[in-house]
Amino acid sequence: MAVRSRRSAGNLPAELTSFVGRRHELGEAKRLLSAARLVTLTGAGGVGKTRLALRVAADVRRAFPDGVWLVELADVGDPHLVPNTVATAFGLRGTSDQAAGLAEYLEDKQLLLVLDNCEHVADECATLVAKLLAVSGGLRVLATSRHTLHVEGEHLLHVEPLPVPRAGDTGGPVEAVTLFADRAAAVSPGFELIPDNRAAVSRICRRLEGIPLAIELAAVRVRVLSVDQVLERLDDRLGLLTSRPAAVRPRRRTLEAAIDWSFELCTPAEQRLWAQASVFPGGFDLDAAEYVCSPADDDSALDVVTGLVDKSVLSRQNGTFGRHAWYRMLETVREYGGARLAADGDEAGVRARQAGYYADLARRYRAEGFGPRQSEWLARLRREHANLRAVLDHCLADPGRAGQALDIAASLWNFWYGGGLVPEGCGYLRRGLELCGERTLVRARGLYAMAFLAIQTGAPHAELLAELGELAAEFDDERLRAGHAECAGMATFFTGDLTGGADLLERALAGYRTAGDALLVFDTLILLAAARFFLGDPRGAAAAEEALALTERHEARWSRGYALWAVAIHRWRADQPRQAAELLHEAVALRLPDRTLLAFLVEALAWCHSAEGEHERVARLLGGAAAVWRLSGARVGEMSPYQGVDEQCATLARKALGDEVFDAAFAEATGFGLDEVVRYALREGPAAHVAGKTAEPGGLTRRQREIAELVARGMSNKEIAAALVLSGRTVEGHVENILVKLGLTSRTQVASWLAGQPGPPA
Fold first, then answer.
1. pTM attached to this predicted model
2. What are residue 3's DSSP bridge partners?
3. Which DSSP letter does residue 398 get?
């Protein structure tokens, strides 16, 4: 093989634009290259793998006496041409066996070979790299690829999108904004970040998810549009970014082209799963992929998902309590998959399988929801929240599937209740009942769930109870009869008729015992213990103790919190406030993701501290309980039996403290976030305040965490503004800031983020 004169400096191109950020990635890549002979930079299309590789190569050039050599493979259509392309970069003339010739040439060289865009010829690249590394001890390879090469000894560095700014950040611009400003100044001399445009630039970068290619293409538009106009036109993210500079290859001209190319590089099975998995806005696990995405008979879902992870189409996260891996797509990638799914004509079948999957999931939750996996189930459903919404909305849009939606929503009745999603659950149940008028068992179950939640919110429920009673008799169903008695008893109790409510609850308890439904036996015991508490009936303590024993027998940790509350309030009634407070502290310390339970616990703690004369603490606990009730969606605390005890404690505290001190303490606590309420209740010290902000997870302020909770419940900006007495513009700004701080791109992802937070109810 003939060789032309050696160019020891290599062939790296000169940088035409500035390199922005990536300090951590640069350091990590150089560290890996010092220890490994093959380093592959992986990541989604347009994320900046090539530019990072070129900068790394330039920085380490002096360590390679025989140079740093770049081989661009993007335009190589035939995999068999890979060895020839690499040989050409070194100035080698062709032979019949280019791979052997390359191996011979590189045998005694100390150089860095940069292979750019390997994904579409990955197998050939892997074969060649393995051969070259085997014969040349001085060779290092730095590759960029949307998926791994699977060569022995390969070290991976996943390249993420650039960090995007947090709204209100007064420091210097973060990397995404710096990139936009740099590229905008290149096409529009004189452009600079100023107070008037900084917020709009930040929002552009967030809308584009920090993807460098997308940001660069958007920045070019500043040549003819103002920054605000660019922002306005980003509603169609893929449609706007269609610039066509002659010097850039067609596949790199737009974000859509980058994603389209990634799609073309996938196998047919991977393309199919990519499109089908777009129906999961909240992400998915392998079980869901196997059920919903229906890979071909000769392809396993695991292999296909693995391929998409390797190609950076999917990113892997830890699942619920680490039990299952969880997979997500960037929103832009998911939107692309959705468009492909619609074009393929397969969407109806995929949606039908997805509805079946979540109907089965909801039934399993109902069957297993009172047992050792109770807390895990609640966390899983919170992670699945966005997917559940998508399924319910889709089914309710099709009258033929409305019954399936009603079945799912009814099975999840205590998820809506315990998850602080009562209004949302009511909304789905109401729509399902309106569309499913036939007198079926599914409708009866929906009526029970709707009545239960309506009573919790003080909404009208008489017609629901009347029809539920009719259907219970029509179907001669003991569980339905007990459900009617339970809901009627609860409504009667909450309106102040304690004796009538207790009688109905006794009837419900007997029916549930006959039906053998442990969960509903437990729930009714709690309600009965509460009714008897307000009646001053000592038999309520026995009901509470039985409920606690039931949770221990079934290892139901979530329900245990309610049982501890029930036992505690009877201890308080028996003039044992300290013992009661200890039980309540134990329940709060469980840090269960149930806002309604937390409100009950904090409220009862106020009663205990009132008996101990700690009146300022009473004021704050009552204020904290009010804050949690607001987030829970339930209104039990506003109903007469509970409200009466609260008012007695407040009156004593006002008398001891004076109105001004009481009101100040109460008002301060109503601004607490959930984490602050828990810490205060447990005497863990005051929440950390910095410039009026609290140390909430994700860097959210108290107000932002509160709004995030309401967003997760499905409330619109208008509804949130009305609930919190804020302007619509203020709420819109808070929601935008929340998405930025959490690194999210859509409102539907907020619930999933909250579900993954450790500690207090979230």
1. 0.71
2. 92
3. S
